[in-house]
Structures are given as C-alpha cells and as structure tokens.
C-alpha cells in the first residue's frame, strides 16, 4: 500500500512506500498540486521501495528510511526522529521484528504501520532480519502504548477492512492477545 499525505491542497507532502502504479500516484500529486518533499520508507523490502528511485527523480523528494535499511536513502532515521512536512510532523517509531529496519510513522492521530501491524494480523518474522522477540517488544511496548483512537494504516490490505484503530486491534487482533514474550515467540513459530 502506498499513502500520499499533504498539509493541504497545493501543500507540502510526502509519499509513504511508493510502489505499484506510480502513474496513479503521480496523478494524485499533480491533481492536488502536492509538493512532495519526502519519500517515507517503512522498511527496505522491494514491495515497499520499488518506486523510490523513480519518484525521487521525478519530484526531487528526499528518501527517508531507518539507518539500518539497506537501500539508497538521503535521510537516515532513528527511533524518535521527527520529519517536518510543511505543517505536518511524522514521528518515527522504530519497530523491529518483521525486519531490523522496520519503522512506523505517526502523523497526528494516523499511524502508518508498514509490515509491523496489519488489520487483524502482524508481519511475518521468518525472513532475513526477522525476530519474533523484537516484534513482541515493538507491538506491546511501543504500538500498544498508543491511545485507542490512533488510526492504523497498514502496509498491506490483508484484513476485513483496509484501516483500523489501535483500540480495535487491541480488542480483536488475535496476535495481540495476552501472551508472555516466550509464548509469543512460540506462537510466531507455529505455521
Ligand atoms: Fe515486508
């Protein structure tokens, strides 16, 4: 999933994970007159970064990604980094687990979760850099500490609805049921 944000029509903006149909993304950018200053990368997997180079070349946007991301980037990010996009602020929450470089972006009450948290699911941890224990810490010590009314915009539309809230996920996502860290690691190892 790609997301486009701006601080208003004709305003400063950013694109999260530009992939897939870049023509469609460009169409929205042009129709709204958005000045794209940043490409925000949730993690370095190709299905989240394949459009970075082309969109950066077309718009002059800076590519922002966690410092551990093995991709071309202009702005290395850390946990707690804040990116100013005109009147908007994107706060970086480092959420390793799916990959070491995974981050979520909190913009006001909107949380862009990449492959860390999906609606009703979470990202897999059995690929290189995956770590179920780290994902437990990211989900329970970071994301579940956010207020219920924070909206969740995941990196893939795998759930019953395209978006959710932290409160809704806390109540209904089976991944977020009460488990110890050890139980969670065993749970993630189950097929
Ligand atoms: Fe991924």
Our count of helices gives: 6
Radius of gyration: 16 Å
Order of helices and strands: EEHEHHEEEEEEEEHEEHH
The number of distinct β-strands equals 13
Low-confidence stretches: none
Main sheet summary: 6 strands, mixed
End-to-end separation: 25 Å
Strand order of the largest sheet: 6-7-8-9-12-13
Give the fraction of residues assigned to helices. Answer: 25-40%
The global form is globular
Question: Which hetero ligands occur in this complex?
Answer: fe (ii) ion
Proportion of strand residues? 25-35%
* Average pLDDT metric: 97
Account of the 3D structure:
The protein is of the alpha/beta class and 191 residues long. The chain has helices at 22-32, 46-49, 52-59, 132-142, 166-172, 181-189; strands at 3-6, 12-16, 35-40, 62-66, 75-77, 82-85, 88-94, 103-107, 110-114, 117-118, 121-122, 151-154, 164-165. Helix 4 (132-142) packs across helix 6. The site of fe (ii) ion has 4 residues, from loops.
Tell me briefly what this model is.
Helices cover 26% and strands 28% of the residues. With 191 residues, the chain is of the alpha/beta class.
């Amino acid at each position: 999933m790609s997301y486009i944000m701006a601080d208003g029509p004709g305003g400063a903006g950013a694109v999260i994970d530009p992939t897939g149909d870049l023509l469609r993304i460009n169409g929205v950018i042009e129709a709204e007159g958005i000045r794209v200053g940043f490409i925000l990368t949730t993690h370095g997997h190709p299905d989240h970064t394949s459009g970075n180079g082309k969109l950066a070349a077309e718009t002059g946007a800076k590519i922002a990604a966690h410092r551990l991301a093995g991709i071309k980037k202009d702005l290395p990010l850390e946990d707690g980094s804040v990116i100013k996009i005109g009147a908007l602020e994107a706060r970086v929450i480092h959420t390793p687990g799916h990959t070491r470089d995974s981050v979520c972006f909190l913009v006001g009450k909107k949380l862009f979760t990449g492959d860390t948290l999906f609606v009703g699911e979470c990202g897999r941890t059995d690929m290189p850099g995956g770590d179920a224990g780290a994902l437990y810490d990211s989900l329970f010590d970071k994301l579940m500490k956010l207020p219920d009314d924070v909206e969740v915009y995941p990196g893939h539309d795998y759930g019953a609805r395209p978006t959710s809230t932290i409160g809704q996920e806390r109540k209904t996502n089976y991944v977020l049921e009460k488990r110890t860290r050890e139980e969670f690691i065993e749970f993630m190892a189950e097929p």
